Amino acid sequence: MASNSIAAHVLMKKGKRGAAAYVHADCSNSTSPQHLNELLDVLLNPGKTIDEWETIDWCKWLIAGGKTPDEFSSIVRRYDNATTCGLVWTANFVAYRCRTCGISPCMSLCAECFQNGNHAGHDFNMFRSQAGGACDCGDTSVMKETGFCDRHGPKAQVNKPPAPNDLVCVAEAVMPRIILRLIQHLRENSKSGVSDVHIVAIQDADQFLTMLHDFSAMGAVMRRVMTGALTNPQIYKNLTECPVADSEYSSYMEESQRVYQEVLKSLPNPEPPDEYKDCPSLQEHLVHRTFLEELVFWTVKFEFPQKVVCLLLNMLPDPDYKEALTQAFVLHYSRISLMLERSTDPDTLSNRVVHVSVQLFSNESLAYRMAERLNLLHVMVISLKYMMSKILIQNSLHDPDKNFHYVVDCGRQVMKEHCYWPLVSDLNNVLSHRPVAVKFMSDDNLLEMWFSFLSLFQGMNVNQRELTQHVEFEPNTYYAAFSAELEASAYPMWALVSHLRDSSTVDLTKSVLSMCLAALQEWLEAVNFTHPGTSDELQVSFHLPLHRYLSVFMCQAVRQQGVPLREVLPPRDLLALIMMHPLRVQVAFYEILSGMWVRNGLQIKGQAMTYIQCNFCNSMVDADLYLLQVCATQLPAEAFLCTVMDKFNVLEWMSLAPYASTHASFLEGEHDAPMLESCLTFLATLMSVRTNLGVSEAPLSQLELVTLLCMGDKTHSQLIELMPERCSTAQSRDFEAVLAEVADYRAPNLEASGNMQQGMYVPRPQVWEKLYDPIHVLLRAVHRRDFQTSMDRFTEYVQQAGKFRGSGAPWPPFRPPAPCHPAYEDPQKLLRSRVFHAAAFVVLHRAVHGQSVSEHVMALTVYLLEMAVASAEPLDPQSQVCQASHSEETEVTDKDLSSFYSSDWLSSNLRKVIHRVRIEPKPAVVFDSSDSEIEWEGADLGEAASSGPVLMLELGAGAGASDESGSSRGVGDAVALVPGTEMVPMESPSPSPPPSALAAASSSEGNDVVAVWGEMVAVGAQPPSTPPPPAPSLTAGDGGPSRPGTASASSPPLPHPTGTEMVPAGAGAAAPPPHVRTPVRAGPSGAQASIAWAGPSGQSTSTDVVPVATPYPRLARARRADVLPSTSAGRKPALRKRKQVMPGSSGSPDALEVNESIISLLLKLHSHLAGTPDSFNPDEPEAAAAATATATATAEAAAEAAESRVGDGPFFLGKLLHRVAALDAFCREAIREARDRLWPRKPEEGEEEAREREAREREERRRRAKERQQKLMAEFASKQKEFMERAMETDEEALSGMDWREEEGATLLASKRDYDCVICSQTTPSTEDKPMGLVVLVQATSVLGHKRRSMDRAPLPTSDEERGNLRRDDSLASEFDRRVEELNMQFDSFSWQLSVNLGWEGGVHVQTCGHHLHLDCLRSYLQSLRSQQRQQSIAVDRGEYWCPLCRQLANSVLPLSPQLGECAAVVRSRPAGLPAIVTEVCNFLKENPPTPMSSSLVEAMAKSMEDMTNSTYHKFKQKSASPTSQSLFLFVSSIARTNLEVELVQRGGSLCQAASTAAEGSGALPGSGSPGAEASALLTPKRSCIVPLLHVLAMHARLLATWPAWQTWQKVAGAGPEPDCAPLALAPLERQVPLLLHDPAALLTQFILLLPLHLDQTYFSCVVKVLYNLLYFQVVAQLSCHLPEAERARRRSCPEPMPGARWSLDAAVALVVQTLEHSQLYLEGSTESSASSAGDLEMQVQQLCLPFLRLAALLRHHLYEQPLPDVTTPQSEFVRLVYYLELVSEGMDWQHFNAAVALNWAYGEAGAARAWCEEMAAFAHRSQVSARNFLAEQHLLWQQPRLLRLPELYDRIFQYYHRRQCTQCHSVPRETSICLLCGALVCLRENCCKQHNVCEAVQHSIDCGGGTAMYLVVTSSYILVIRGKRACLWGSVYLDSFGEEDRELKRGKPLYLSPGRYQLLEQQWLAHRFDHTSKKWVWHRDGL
Ligand SMILES: [Zn+2]
Ligand SMILES: [Zn+2]
Ligand SMILES: [Zn+2]
Ligand SMILES: [Zn+2]
Ligand SMILES: [Zn+2]
Ligand SMILES: [Zn+2]
Ligand SMILES: [Zn+2]
Ligand SMILES: [Zn+2]
C-alpha cells in the first residue's frame, strides 16, 4: 500500500495530462495496468468524500488518455453509432407523440427528433411528460421507421467507422473502479436511520453522478464501456470481495459488505405462494451478481433518485444493457411494491418507477422473455395481491354474520393514494403484448391468482342506505373504489380481451371464463348469497369485477370468436344468482336518481354518476346490462320480470285499487311513481340497447356521438373526451367520418360582448329525425337534466322544422331496436310474457284513471307495448279459441300479475276484458294535510273563470264520454256512469261563484281543490253561493264497500268522504283548468287535497307529485281543452265517487269492477290525450294518422311520417293501435267492438253539434283571452328589453356597430343643463352647491407611447435573428425620453416644461359610461358600498364603485361645471379683424380668471384632479426633480392632450373614415375583414367626457399659471408688448426654448385651458390660426434641414410675396433658409436626398401639419359641438380640416391650394416668422448640434400603436420561448411569458425577478404599459392581461384546427393564430376597455 501510493504519487506529479498519457500507453498494452490501479487506489479512496472536484477531474483526464477531456469527448462522439436517440427526460419535459408513426401507444419523441422527422399530416400532439420518459426515435419495436429523424434508425449509422481499439482502453480500466466508488458511497449512506438520508446521499454524489452522465452522453462507444463494467459478474465479484490482506481498505470493505447485507434484509420480499418459491424473482434472499443489480437495488432502496434513474435509463440504447437492466429491475420488482406501500410520497415514487418500467416493458420481446424466464406476470400479480392483502376488511353485504368474504378497505392509503398504480400500469403495459397476454391466459394458476385478486374488489365499498338521518360525514372512499376497479380490473380486462379476436383463441377465452365463474361461485358462497331471494335491499356495492369479466369475456366469445352462447353460459341456477347483483346495482342506481338515497349525501349521487360516466360505462354499466340481457333471455321470462318488478318495488304499485300506492311498505310514498318510471326505463333499456348484442362498431360510435351531441353542442375535444372508451385504446379511426355524418361544424365567432366561442359541432337534422335515441341518452346522461336538455333540443328542432305542430310537447322518440346478433335471443321476448301484459294493463288503467301516471310513464309503456306487438310471433302457438270471449267473467287478483292472463298470447291478452279484480282491504287512511297546496298563476285565473265549463270536458275521456246518451250506460265493460243523477248538476248548472270569489277561495289555505287527471273535485271551503251538490245518492255514502271511481252504476253507494264536500259542477268548472293530467297522485293522502297542476307554462307546480322531471310539460293541455266537446255532466259524479272512495273506513276484501281490456284502455287513453272522444280512427291509414298528428298534410310526407317517431301521445298511441289492429283479425275486431261500446253512434246529432259549437265558441273566447294576455306579456317583455338596452348600454352595442354619436353624444353635449341622477332619479341642473357629476373611470395609459415610426407591425421574435432586429427604441415613448433629456440639458426647466406635453407613457385617460349622479348621492352610495363586507371585486377604499345604473367599473367622478353647455356665451364686442382678436385673447390671458370661490363644486373638482393625479405612477408624473408650478401645469395640461390623442388613436389615427381602413388593412391582420370605419367605431367611446374634463383641468391650470402666459401668446402671434404695435424682434433669451422648438399642440392645450372655455369660436379660430403659422414655419424649417445644400441654395432666392399676396411654400423656404443659413444649422455639404420636386415638399408639409390640425379639429368638435367634417379620402383630410378650422375661409381652385394658403398673419406679413427663425439661429449659435437635432426631428409621423405581430403557428413561439432564460435572472421561468407590446420575457409568478415585493410581470406592466399589459403565457398559450391591480386570463389567440383553445397545451395539437381574437385583444387595449370586459378579474397583489 505504501509503495503503491508512492508510485501513485510519482505518477500524479506528472500532472493530469502527463499521467493520463502514461496510463494510456500502459493500458493499451496491458490488461491490468499496475500503475493505474495504484493511482486509482489513491484517487478513489473511500475515505475521501465522493464529490471531491480534484478526484473527478483526475478521472476525466485519465480517461481522456492524454487529450483534454473536451477533445476526448468530441472524438468519442465521432464514433457514436447509436441508432436510437434514447434521450431521457424527467417530469414536465415537452415531448411529442405521433399516433401515425407509433406502434406502441406509449411512444414518444424528443422535440429535436420530432422536428427532424417528417410528421406532416400525421396525427401527432405535443405533451408535457408526467412521469418522465425517453425518446424512442430509432427504436423499430416502438415506432415505424418512417417517423425516424435522419440521425436515428438502423440505416442512419451504417457508414460510421468503428472506434480505434485504444480509444477507450483507459476508460475500460477505470470505469469499474468508478462504479465501485459509487456503490461504496451508496452503501455507506444507507446506514444512518435519518429519514432524508437518501436524498442527502445522492446530493453528496451529485458531481460524481454528473461525471457519469457526461460519459454516457459521449455516445455508444463510452456507454459500451460503462455497461460492460456494470453487467460483468466477474468484475463485480473481484471488486466487491473483501481483500484478504489485513489493510485499512479491507476492513473498510468488510464493514461495507456488512452494511450491505444488513440493508438487503431490510427490504424483504412478499411471501410467495409455495409453487413459486423457486422463482428467481421471488427469492427471499437477494443475491446480486453484477454492479448493475446492486445499483438497481440501491435505486429501489433510495426510492428511485432522479439522477440515478436517469443514468440507468441513459444507457438504454445499448441493447444488451437493456436486457440486463430489465432483468435486474424484475428481480427487485416485488420489493418495489413494498416501497410503494411504505412511501411517504407515493405519487413521486410511482412516477419514477413508471419512468423506468415503461421503458423496459414497452418492448414486446423483452417483456415476453421476462415473463418466461423470471415469471414477471406472477411477480406482478403476487405483488398486487400482496399489497391488497394487508388492507382487507370483512365484507358487509347481506348478512354480515354469515359473510366471510374479505374485501379491500377503500379508506386505506394504498387505495386512496393509488399506491398500486405503477404495478397496474406495468401489468397493462405488458398485457398489451399479445404473446404475454396469451401466456397470461393460458396459465391457470395465474388466472386463479388473478381472479382471487379481483375478488378482493368484489363487493367493496358497500353503501348502506340511510333512512332516518343524514350521514354525518360523506365518505370519499368511492373515488378509490371506482378507480381501483377501472385501473386494476377493467384495464387489464380490456387488454386481455383485445387479443381474443377470432376462433383461434377460443380456448383461452373459455379458460378465463371457467376460472372467472369458479371465482364468482366461490364469492357467492363466501358472501352467503345462496338464494336469489336473499335480501339485498338498503345496501349496494357498485363493484362487481368478477361479474364484469364474465360478461365481457362471454360477449367477446360469442361476438368475435363465434362461440355458441350455450357453451359459455353458466348453469341456469347459477345464472339466477349471478343476475341478482348487477340487478341490484341497476335498481340502486335508479333509487339514487329518485332521491331515495338523499340521506347518504352527495357522494352517493357521485357513485351513480361515475357508474355510467364515459370512462366507466363500457366496463361497468354496459357489462352489467349485457349480463342482465343474457339472463333475461335465458331465464324464464315470467320469473325474470317478477324479480325485476320486485326489486324495483313496483309490485305494490301494480294495483288497481285506488289507494294501493300509498302503503307500499318499502318505498316512502313519494318514491313509488319515479320507481315505476325507473323500472320501465330499465326494461326499455334492457329491450332496446344493442351495445353488446350485436351492433357493430361504426353504428355504435355513431350512436354514442349522437347521444353526446343531443345533450348539447360540443367542441371536438369534448366529443373525443366524452366518447365512452374501453381503455386508453386509440380513438376509433372512423371517428372523424362518423362525426362528419352526424354533425355540422360551427366555426367560432367573436361575440359582440367579447365572449369568445370555440368551434362547435351541432347535430344535423337527421340526427333529430332518425338517430336521437332517448333511451340511450338516459343511459349515458350523467345528469338527468342532460336528458331534459336533449328533449328540449329535440322539441325545438321538430317545432322549427315543422315536423311537429302540436301545442304540447312531443313524446320522446323511442326507437325500434336494431336486430339482435343471431347468437342471442332477443330480450324483447320478455315482452311476450303475460306478466308484462298484466303490468301494462295496470299502468294503462291507472293512466286512464289518473293515478300517478306521468306522461313519461305512458310513453314508456306504449313504447314497450309497441315492441311487444312488433316482436309478437305472427301466429302465436295458441291459436286456439279466442280467449277473450265476452261471455265469461274474468276476475283477477289485484297485484298478482300472473293471474291476469292464462297464457302469453299477446293477441288474446290485448283483447281480454278483465271484469273484476279482488282487492285487499282498504288501508286506514291518514290524512296528510301538509300535502295541501294550491298554486297557480294568477294569469290563469281569469281565463279559467271565463272558460270554466271547458274544464270538465277533460273528464270526457277519463270516465267515458259516452254518458250523455243514456243508451251507452250499462254496457258491461266499463265506464262508470252513475245513472240519472249525475246529469243533474250539469243540466241545471249551479250558480258559479264569481271568479274573484273563486280566486280568493282557491288561494286561501285549506280550501283545497283536487284536480286529478280526468276528474276534478273541489273540496273544502266551498263558495257559499254554491248550493250543495245534488248527487246525494252518490255522495251520501253509508259506509258500504268502497268502490273505485269507476264503479258502475249498479255498485253500492259510496261512503262520503270525511270532511269534504262536493262542489257542484259549476264550481268545479270555475276552478283553474286542469292542465295537469297526470302526475297528481290520487289516493287517500290526497284526499284532503292537493291540487297540482301545471301553470300555463306547462310545468307542474305541485311538489310532491312529479319527483322525476318528465320531459314534457304535463300534457298538451291547450290542445286538449280546445277540442273537448261540451260538458258532460255525467263525469262529475263519477269523479266524486272516486274521491269518496279514497278515505274511508276499512273494509273487507272486495271485488272491484274493472271491465277493461288493454285495447279499450288504449282507446280511452288515446281519446284522453287527443281530447276528443273516439279519437282513434282505425280506418285512417297509419301514415295519414301520423300526418294529421304532425300536421304534415302532403302525401309525400305521409309516407315518411309513417316511419316518423315525431309526435305526441295520440300519435304514438295511434301507431300502437294500428299495429295491434294489424296483429290479427281478432284484434281488429276487438278494437272496433271496443269503440262501439265506448262511443256508440249518437242519435241526437243536433245536440251534439250544438255542443260542439258551444265548445268552439268557448274555445274561441279562451283563445282570444289568451292572445290578449300574450300580447300584453309581449309588450311587457319588449318594454323591459328596451329598458334594459337603454339602461345597460354596454360594449355590446358599440361593438355591434350602433352609432352612439348621433343620439347619445347629442344628449350630453347639447346639455340642457339638466341631468338625471342615476341614484335618486331626480332631474336637476348642476350647481355650485349641489353639483352633479359624470361617472368616470380614470386610468394610466401608455398606449400613445407605443406608437412607432415604422409602418409595419413589429414581429414577435421567434429566432435570435429576429430578436436582434426587434427595435425597442423607435417608439414615441423612447423618442420623447430622448428629447426631454436634451431639452433638460439645453434649457431651463420652467421654459421647456411649457413647450411640450407629456403623458405618452403613463398618461391619464378618462372615460365615462355617460351616467350622471349627484355628488351627494354618490357619497352615500360609496358609504353603503364601504359598509358592505363583501365587496371583493372592487376596491372601495380606492374609490372604486360600480356605476349604479350600468354596473360598469368607475373610480372617480367629473363634476359638471354649471357653465357647461354655455357655448359661445362669452363674447365681448366681436372684434373686427384678426389683430383685434389677438389682442382680446391676450387680454383674456392677462386677466387669468380670479381664483374661484370655495364651493362644493370646487372641492369636487379638486378631488377629481386628485383622483387623476393618483391614477398614474409617480415616475410618469413629472420629468424633473422637484415640482414647480410649471411642471404641475405640464402634468395638468398634458391630461387634456393625452385624452385627445387617445381619441385620435381610437378613431384610427386620423379623422378620415377611409384612412383608418387603409391603416388597419395594412396592419398585418390577415382575415380581419372588418372595415376600418367599423373598427374605429368599435374603439371610440360611446360618450365623450372631454369637455367636463377640460373644465376640471382648466380650473387647476389657471391656478397654476403664475407666469405671464400672455407673453408667449404675443410672441406666437407676433404682436408687440403693446396692443396694435408693430411686430417686435424677439430678443433671444438664454436657456429659453425658442418658439420654433415649441410643440404647437402643447401651446394649443395651454391656451385653451387658460382661456375661458366657453369663449366664442372666433377666439378659438384665432388661437388655431396663430399656432398654425408657427407650425407651418417649424415644418418648413425642419424640411429645410433635410434639403441638399444645392437645393437650399437654389431656393433661398425666392422673393417674399408682396404684402397682401398669398404666401407660398417657396417664399417660406426662402425666408427660413435666409434667416437660418448663417447659424451653421445646416450641415456643410449635406447631400441628404429628400423631396426633389416641389410637389413632394408640399406633401410633406401637409403630412407634418396634419397631427396638429386633427387635434385642433377634435377640440373644436367637442367644445363647440360642431360635427366633424366628412373626410372620405386621406388626400382630402388636410384641406377639409383647414376649412373646418376656418384657416381658410374663401373657396379656391384646387391648383391654387397648398398649405401656405392657410397662413393668417395678424401683424405684418411674416415678421413673426422671421423673428422665430432668428431666435432659433441664436440658439443654433450656442448649441449647434443640439439645435440641428431638435429641428430636424421636430415633427415626426407616428403610426398607430399596435401589438406585436404573432406567427401563424404557435409552435414557433413555443419552441423559441419555452425553456428560454430570463435576461434578468438567467433562470428558466416555469411560466415563461412574453409582453405583446415589446416582446420582453418575464418571469411570471416567480420570486427570482421580484423587486420590492413586486413580481416581474406586474412591474413590467407598469414600465411598459402604464399599468396595462398583455402577456402571452408560453406554456399555456393563454393571454394574461394585467390591468392596474387586477389581472385576468383573457383567453387564447391561438386555436386548433377545430377552433378550440388548448389551455395549458393539454391536448398539444397544432395551434394557429386567430386573427379575429388577436384584433379583439388589440382593440380592447386601444379602447382602454379591459376593465369593462366580462372576464374573471382577480386581484393580483403584485404576485404575477
Ligand atoms: Zn430524440
Ligand atoms: Zn432521432
Ligand atoms: Zn408521424
Ligand atoms: Zn341624486
Ligand atoms: Zn353608467
Ligand atoms: Zn413590454
Ligand atoms: Zn425575469
Ligand atoms: Zn427571474
From TrEMBL:
Pathway(s) the chain acts in: Protein modification; protein ubiquitination
Domain UBR-type, first and last residues per copy: 83-154
Gene Ontology molecular-function annotations: ubiquitin protein ligase activity; zinc ion binding
Entry coiled-coil feature ranges: 1248-1282
Zinc finger residue extent: UBR-type: 83-154
UniProt region (Disordered), positions on chain: 982-1003, 1020-1106, 1122-1149, 1172-1191
SMART domains: ZnF_UBR1 (SM00396)
Keyword Transport: no
Record key words, sorted: Coiled coil, Metal-binding, Transferase, Ubl conjugation pathway, Zinc, Zinc-finger
Functional description taken from the UniProt entry: Ubiquitin ligase protein which is a component of the N-end rule pathway. Recognizes and binds to proteins bearing specific N-terminal residues that are destabilizing according to the N-end rule, leading to their ubiquitination and subsequent degradation.
UniProt protein name: E3 ubiquitin-protein ligase
Naturally occurring in which organism (per UniProt): Gryllus longicercus
